[in-house]
Write a structure and sequence with these properties.
Blueprint lengths: L1 E5 L4 H12 L3 E6 L7 E2 L10 H4 L4 E4 L11 H25 L4 E5 L26 H20 L2 E6 L2 E3 L5 H11 L15 E3 H13 L6 E4 L8 H12 L10 H10 L3 H8 L7 H7 L7 H10 L12
Parallel strand pairs: 1-2, 1-4, 2-3, 4-5, 5-6, 6-9, 7-8
Helix pairs in contact: 1-6, 3-4, 5-7, 7-11, 8-9
Length: about 325
C-alpha cells in the first residue's frame, strides 16, 4: 500500500510515517517544506495542486491543519479555519479520487464534541456534535463534507477524533507539566478529581494504521484513547513515577484554581486541567477489534526518556 501522509513533519506525522513504514507500507510524507525526505506540499487552500503527490497512492492520511491562531481574531480567524481545515480538505479529497486513491483517513478532533463531558457519560461518536471554537467547527465541517462526498463518489472516508496526544517530543502544556514534575516543582492539583482521556502517540499511530486496511472502517468516525482515564492529580503522580521522582502536589481547592486561571486570562487551561473530557472507545473495539497496545504509564515513560528541550508541536484537544 502506498500512503500519502500530509503534515508529516509534525508531532503525529513523524510518528505515523515511521509506524506505517514499519508495517511495510510505502509512505509518501508531505510537509510545508521539503526536507529529510519529505515532499513539499502547498499551503492548505482550495487552490492547492496535490496531484503530483497523489499519483500512484492507494490511501491518504490527512493530518495537516490549522491548529492555532496566528494573530487573527473574530470572523477573520473563523474564515481561515474554515478555508484551511474544511474547504481545503474537501479539495484534497476530490483530487485524491481523481488520482485513483481508494481510502481517505481524516484526523479530526474530539473538539467536534465540545470541550467537556460528564462523569456519568463519556463521549460517544453518535452524541450531539457541539464544537465551541473555530477549530472544532472547521473540523466538524470537514467531516460532514467528506462523508457526503464519500457517499456520492465511493471514496472510502474514515474519520478519527483523538483527544490530547502525548508521546516523545510532545509540546505545549503537556511538556511544561512533565518538566515541572521532573524539576520537583510543587503543583496545585492535589484536590482535582476530574477525568480526562488521553491518547499516546504509539496508540494513535497503531489505530490510524488499522483504519487504512480494515474493511469495516470506511464510512465511520471513531474516538480513540489509551483506554485509561485519569484525573489531573493522578496524571501528575504517574508522571512522577515515570521520571522516578515523587510528584509534589498541593490540595488547592478547584474553585480557587479555576478563579485564578480565569483571572489571568487562562480559562481554556482551566477547562483542560480541571474539567472532565472522557471518550468511550467501545466502537473502535467492537468494529475494528482494536485494543490500545501501549498503556498510559508506559507511554509516559517514553515521554520521560525523551529529551524535553525545545518545544515541539502537538495535536490540539
Amino acid at each position: 500500500m502506498s500512503v500519502l501522509v500530509t503534515g508529516a513533519s509534525g508531532f503525529v506525522g513523524r510518528g505515523l510515517t515511521a509506524a506505517l513504514a514499519g508495517r511495510g507500507m510505502s509512505v509518501r510524507p508531505a510537509s510545508r517544506q521539503a526536507s529529510e525526505g519529505h515532499l513539499a506540499m502547498a499551503p492548505l487552500s482550495t487552490q492547492a495542486d496535490w496531484r503530483p503527490l497523489l499519483a500512484g497512492c492507494d490511501a491518504v492520511v490527512h493530518l495537516a491543519a490549522r491548529v492555532h491562531h496566528r494573530g487573527e481574531r473574530g470572523d477573520a480567524a473563523e474564515a481561515l479555519y474554515a478555508e484551511e481545515n474544511a474547504a481545503a480538505t474537501l479539495a484534497l479529497a476530490r483530487q485524491s479520487l481523481e488520482q485513483g486513491v481508494r481510502r481517505f483517513v481524516f484526523v479530526s478532533s474530539v473538539k467536534v464534541h465540545g470541550d467537556r463531558s460528564t462523569r456519568e457519560k463519556p463521549l460517544r461518536e453518535d452524541d450531539p456534535l457541539a464544537p465551541e471554537d473555530a477549530y472544532g467547527r472547521s473540523k466538524l465541517a470537514a467531516e460532514r463534507q467528506l462523508f457526503e462526498f464519500g457517499d456520492k463518489t465511493g471514496l472510502e472516508i474514515v474519520v478519527v477524533r483523538p483527544p490530547l496526544v502525548h508521546g516523545p517530543g510532545v509540546g505545549a502544556n503537556f511538556r511544561s507539566l512533565m518538566q515541572a514534575v521532573t524539576r520537583g516543582m510543587p503543583l496545585p492539583f492535589g484536590a482535582v478529581d476530574n477525568r480526562r482521556s488521553l491518547v499516546g502517540l504509539d496508540n494513535l499511530c497503531d489505530f490510524l494504521a488499522l483504519t487504512l486496511i480494515h474493511p469495516a472502517a470506511p464510512g465511520e468516525a471513531f474516538l480513540v484513547s489509551d483506554g485509561e482515564d485519569v484525573s489531573t492529580a493522578r496524571l501528575v503522580r504517574l508522571m512522577g513515577d515515570a521520571v522516578g521522582r515523587e510528584a509534589r502536589l498541593m490540595p488547592v481547592p478547584k474553585g480557587v484554581l479555576s478563579a485564578g486561571l480565569h483571572a489571568i486570562g487562562r480559562g481554556g487551561m482551566a477547562t483542560r486541567l480541571l474539567g472532565d473530557l472522557q471518550v468511550d472507545i467501545g466502537k473502535a473495539q467492537r468494529h475494528l477489534g482494536w485494543v490500545p497496545p501501549v498503556s498510559l504509564f508506559d507511554g509516559l515513560r517514553q515521554v520521560a526518556s525523551a529529551p524535553l528541550g525545545a518545544a515541539d508541536g502537538s495535536r490540539r484537544a
